[in-house]
């Protein structure tokens, strides 16, 4: 189950093979139901982690400017990213570890 929930993201290029194998190991320890619940909590933690990373690196400033322009002028003016703008690196293993720990500590795997 752990590999099954992550393999599609790997095939689409959204995650690495190590993340898939880590979820497979989580599934080996927690069983199918536990792996699925750990995956759900990992997804929530991963989403929060991604937003925090984007805010800390200033990546969302461009979208904030677009929103402010729309609110003030009622016109949507797209602001494309600059060529030098680099997306921050997301280490999803951290989210997998935290999501699994939270699901086990809170007792959702029983």
Proportion of β residues? under 5%
The number of helices is 4
The tally of domains stands at: 1
Q: In angstroms, what is the radius of gyration?
A: 18 Å
What fraction, in percent, of the residue positions are helical? over 70%
State the low-pLDDT regions, or none: none
Shape label: elongated
Largest sheet: none
Order of helices and strands: HHHH
What do the pLDDT scores average to? Answer: 88
Structural class: mainly alpha
Number of strands: 0
First-last Cα distance:
16 Å
Characterization of the model:
The protein has one domain (2-105). It has 4 helices and no strands. The protein has helices at residues 2-11, 17-56, 61-73, 92-105. Helix 1 packs across helix 2 (17-56) and helix 2 crosses helix 4. The two termini are 16 Å apart. The mean pLDDT is 88.
